[in-house]
């Protein structure tokens, strides 16, 4: 990460190094942003945006650290993540979409050491009427999730989050070792 935390405990500094070396999707742009300061003694936040053509997806990844531990977190670290996307009315209008989005999160975190996963999936359908009736329907989806990493290795956690963000925006997963060509979405 760009910022240095000289006063931070070794576990948090290790987590920052791990985040800095993470190999995430090329179709998701990341940038550090101001982190919340009252939730935990140490925190870092990263904003993300899906850059694949004809997609709209963004999010925020916040890593919290309390060296004394936090009973509610069941550990010293907590990831709080947000994913927002606009999906086609056909996809977003399906009542099972929330379950599918949650399963994408579970799939993204499969094999990633964590516990205490929780969150919500929200879907908002915008339908215009009257003078605006010609506007196409759009569907906004939002996942607000959090989980407790079991150690300071954050690479797999931010990779899972970027994979989830891309999936929600409609970008297909890539097989291991395959790179998407610029301008392609599938």
Assess the beta-strand content as a share of residues.
35-45%
Low-confidence stretches: 179-186
Helical percent range? 10-25%
Please, what is the average pLDDT? 87
Notes on the protein architecture:
The protein is of the alpha+beta class and 186 residues long. It has one domain (10-169). It contains 4 helices and 6 strands, in the order αββββααββα. The protein has helices at residues 10-20, 89-92, 97-109, 155-169; strands at 28-33, 42-50, 56-70, 75-87, 114-126, 138-149. It has a 6-stranded antiparallel beta sheet. Helix 3 runs antiparallel to helix 4. The chain is elongated, with a radius of gyration of 18 Å. The two termini are 31 Å apart.
Keywords summarizing the entry:
4 helices, alpha+beta, disordered C terminus, 186 residues, six-stranded antiparallel beta sheet
Draw up the topology in text.
Blueprint: H1 10-20, E1 28-33, E2 42-50, E3 56-70, E4 75-87, H2 89-92, H3 97-109, E5 114-126, E6 138-149, H4 155-169
Antiparallel strand pairs: 1-2, 2-3, 3-4, 4-6, 5-6
Helix pairs in contact: 3-4
């Amino acid at each position: 990460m760009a910022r240095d935390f000289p006063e931070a405990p070794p576990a948090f500094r290790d987590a920052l190094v791990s985040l800095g070396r993470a190999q995430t999707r090329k179709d998701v742009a990341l940038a550090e942003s101001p982190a919340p300061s009252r939730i935990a003694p140490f925190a870092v936040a990263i904003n993300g945006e899906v850059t694949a053509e004809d997609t709209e997806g963004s999010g925020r990844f916040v890593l919290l650290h309390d060296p004394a531990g936090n009973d509610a977190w069941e550990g010293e670290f907590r990831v709080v993540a947000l994913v927002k996307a606009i999906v086609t009315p056909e996809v977003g209008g399906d009542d099972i979409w929330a379950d599918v989005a949650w399963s994408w999160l579970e799939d993204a975190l499969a094999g990633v050491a964590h516990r205490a996963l929780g969150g919500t999936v929200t879907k908002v359908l915008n339908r215009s009427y009257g003078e605006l009736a010609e506007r196409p329907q759009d569907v906004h989806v939002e996942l607000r999730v959090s989980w407790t990493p079991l150690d300071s290795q954050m690479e797999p956690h931010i990779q899972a989050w970027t994979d989830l963000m891309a999936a929600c925006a409609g970008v297909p997963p890539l097989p291991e070792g395959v790179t998407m060509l610029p301008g392609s979405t599938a």
